[in-house]
Amino acid sequence: MPRSRPPKTTLSSQLASATAYGFVVLLVILVIISAALLFQAAWRGDSSTFPTFPDDKPPSTKPCVLAAVVKPTTDLLPWAVCQVRKEADDSNFHYGYGREDITYPHPDPVGGTDKVLKILYPKNSINPRSGRVGGLGFHTKRLPEANEAYIEYEVYFAQEFKWVKGGKLPGLYGGRIECAGGYRMVNPVSHHHPLPQPPRFTPIPLTSLCPSLMWRANSAGEAYLYVPRSEQHSTLFEYPPRTIADATYGISLGRGGFNFRDGGWTRVGIFVGLNDVDAQNGVLKVWIDDKEVVDFGKMVYRTQDTVRIAGVMFDTFFGGSKPGFEAAEDSYTYFKNLHIASAIPDRLIDK
């Protein structure tokens, strides 16, 4: 009996088989490449999403998580916004107010490529203690407690910004968080600088420090301090061009010695070096656009050596607390590049 022949394979069926096989191979290759790219991205991190991390440790794949050791090049704003929005829970972060008044990421108002934080101050808002909340407040411990620290950020005010009498800007803090509104921050009346003492104060020993900046009318700037007044060197109160020791609240140091840009970014740098206890040798330095505008080296920040600098005090609002400080209209500021370090950057030392 003759053998049965296998069915003939046509050219078209051969082509179909080859095409299907090639498609499967291509699909496998694409899957492998995609997996490799995803792994590489997860390992290196996307600089537009993740803060800068130490070179010897890959970042977390969670954009709301910072490394244990924060480098001077680490932008804290993306992480801080996560905490403000309750997208993460970091014990080193303490929220104050303003969650509803922020937009992030927001386009750079001058057309740059940076992601920026936009902050709203609603009309008539003032010091948050009043209940008419505007701006943003939080503090964060991102340094080992130290005797020296440097904070830097950039802030933008629009050309049409209504400065009114003034408002608060971020700075550093240490000790207990009791700086806002002057609470527990004014020392008793002394014969050197007699000042009326507000009620409910238990100011000795000084347990807080919150050196920061304020804007004033017509874009003027100043350093703003809560310090034990009776301990200060007399030249503090003579610091040019004008220094004002408010009877109830903080000290306006060097008012009008610099200005913030309107319609452009202003880079702010603040360095604080704590005094030795029983010595008038604390340091305050301020730079505006890398130009030193405040330099005072006889400050008394503390009366206890247990008080250390802990981190960023991000407070921004219209005020003061008195009439005339309220936001005249819905107003906005913009922030970017928030950094903290344990030393002054080399670029400022070399100048």
UniProtKB/TrEMBL annotation:
The keyword Magnesium does not apply. The chain crosses the membrane at residues 20-43. This is Polysaccharide lyase 14 domain-containing protein. The keyword Aminoacyl-tRNA synthetase does not apply. It holds the Pfam family Polysacc_lyase_14. Keywords: Membrane, Transmembrane, Transmembrane helix. It comes from the Eukaryota. InterPro entries: Polysacc_lyase_14. Residues 113-187, 213-338 form the Polysaccharide lyase domain.
